[in-house]
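Sample A.
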Amino acid sequence: MTEASARFDRICATLRDRICLLDAPPGTRLSEEVLAAEFGTSRTPIRRVLARLEAEGLVAVRSGVGSIITDLDRAEFAQVYALRQELTQLVATLDPVTPTPAHVARAAEFETQGDALAAAPDARAFAVLNRDFHDFGLSLTGNAALREVAERLYLRTARIWLQAVARMDLGQECAIFADEIRQTHAALRAGDARAAALIRRSHISMSAARLAQVPAPAAG
């Protein structure tokens, strides 16, 4: 990887985190000039980064305004979550990877983190752990196209939970997530990547159902 490619990936990852963790909320304008100064680069690579984020659905370019962080409406949210469920199941059938000792060891680390989260619930820590666990789940398929599509859909929905959590039972959500991780670890110890994928699919489905019951915030 070239230095320019590494810098591009680093800036993309930083801005994705800001958007998905709501450090930069929907409606925020992303200034090419400000970002170029922050990352010590010209505006050209910043434009490439913003184009990538636009392709991922995180940013919209508005004429005369610039790049604005998007939001996800409830109708689109339901459709994206339904598709995520189906793609998660495909992890087990399209070029599945046989779980290795490294996979099992990583799952054990996640289980420890999940138990700690359940003991001390924190919305931001949940979001970060969920993102890392999602990436880990995609490592169980060798299908690069599937990983790319699943990642983009995940990014489209990542903010919904953080937006809704103030009106949910955070302790319960963290306990449910810890249980999902525990079940996944057990499936991988048994060498069953298909079971791990089906566990993830089930939890995505139940998570979507719980989120659908949370009323949308009142318009300001």
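Sample B.
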Amino acid sequence: MAQQTVRPAPGAAKMPPASGGGRRNGSRPRRAPRPRTVLVTAVAWLIAAVFLLPYAQMVITALRPAGELRDATYLPGEFAWSNFIDVWRESHLGDNLRVTLLVAGGSTLLVLLVAIPAAYYTARVRFRGRKLFLLLVLVTQMFQPTSLLVGLYREFYQLGMLNSVWTLVLCNAAFNLAFAIWILTAYFSAIPEELEEAAMIDGLSRGRALLRVTLPLAMPGVVTAVIFTFIAAWNEFVMGLTLSTVPESQPLTVGINSFIGNYTVQWNYLFAASVIAIVPVVVLFAFIERHVVSGLTAGSVK
């Protein structure tokens, strides 16, 4: 019998060859990166290394034994992990950290409690003197806290509030309140007022419309105010040094400065305390990084 040749039907898919050199699973061959892409990536890594190198040096010095502080080597012969334990036990670093957390957290909370209603009222109500109020808020940012230290010290001394956490909370909140009001006013003004009117038609009051409608939309501005206030209060040094004279009531920035003596500097303990000081800030940014990115890109896409 003659063998019949089976021809594929028109339009039928052709089977790939069974040779081993063909593409697997229909994947496209990888293309070599373009020279421009390689150059941009290399520059990005170089910039990142420049910014990360001081932090790496800080961690390495924090782990360096006291006998190797003057050595010219970049890496120590052995890592002294006990530096972190010693700096925690032999100093008031725990109390300083607690004070700084209370001051930064309390200042941020107080700023939000005052700035959100003030910025919302300024954005929604066209009262007489509104522009003058915003101008005065902006002008207060020009004053340096250092120029007011003598008056502040005298005032809190008469009130008997020196060496108090509440003193530092009030001062830090006062100097960061203007920025929070200014930036939140801009965010509230950009939100259509019709959204609140629709919510109030559905039965919500003005306050509940603010909490449920306007405030979530203004969250990038709130996060920006939180970051600015928290970091400013965390890094504040001059007021903490002037208004707190007892080591247990001093903030972390002043406590770290105690490792710098008149004739010697305990570099290993100084950098170990600095590493401990940056951990809460890194944790804060890890939690709010998503909101920070949304705040940076707010308004870029309509």
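B remarks: The chain has twelve helices and no strands. Residues 93-124 form the longest helix (32 residues).
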